[in-house]
Give the backbone structure.
Amino acid sequence: MVTASATYHELIARNRRNSVLLVAVFILFVGVVVGVLSVAALGAPPESAPVTGGIAIVGAGLMAMWSYYGGGSAILGMSGARAVAKDDDPQLFNVVEEMAIAAGVPPPKVYLIDDTALNAFATGRDPEHAAVAITQGLRERLSRDELQAVIAHEVSHVRHFDIRLMMLLATLVGTVVLITDFFWRTLRFRAWTGGGRRGSSRDGGAGAALFVVAILFSVVAPIFARIIQLAASREREYLADAGAVELTRNPGALISALQKLSSDKEVLEAANRATAHLYIVQPIKKFEKRAKGLFATHPPMDSRIERLRTLVPGPAAGEEAAA
């Protein structure tokens, strides 16, 4: 929880620490899940679970490293985003550069998604390798002040290092889902070939207990992983909203922009469940209606706007740094 007296420098440091801790815990969690599920699915002795889990931890770490270095490009490619040059849209680049200067970060690369829906997201591993992508609809239908507020929100994600954390969490959640899917496919194959009970009979009670634990893990692990990811995503949306006000000193512009985005009925065709949490508002409208509470990718819009109405613009980032 961020106190009113916390500075944005403290916030960034806290997010860095939390990112490292959360990813480390998640990698260990993946290792435990893989160790248990692999041994149970393959019918291996229970004592082999630590070895399998250790291998899984290394594998999860490698996947996290891939996400760290290549995840941003992959997300932009999945989203159908194309890079735009300053000569293509000088006003857009002017807004991006203004907000980057105010935040004290390098200007992120700018991408455009050819879609009439209203949305935007930021990605990358750090401020030096960040990118901001907006839809054509957002570019055309927002005023300059509203556009500036949305860009400020995304630049705040960059400044807070949210882009790194959410990219890594998405990869690790995907790893858990793949692991559990492999477990169930292996069980079905062993049942079909008549090998489903060999491990349990050979290892007695230990094998049977491990198998029961594996079944529970296969059901609970993906849900638990997804809840962690979405909880982190929702909290960081609130923080990025506050960061946008800090940079623009204009909460009304962000409120107006969020109202326009939330009332937009168009579905962003390029978005999917793997990338939906990155956007400033939920891009898949059917999920926005169904997902509530723990399973929502974004905080309720009414709650976001209510918080914004209570914010009083503080000193600009540059002034704070100079103080």
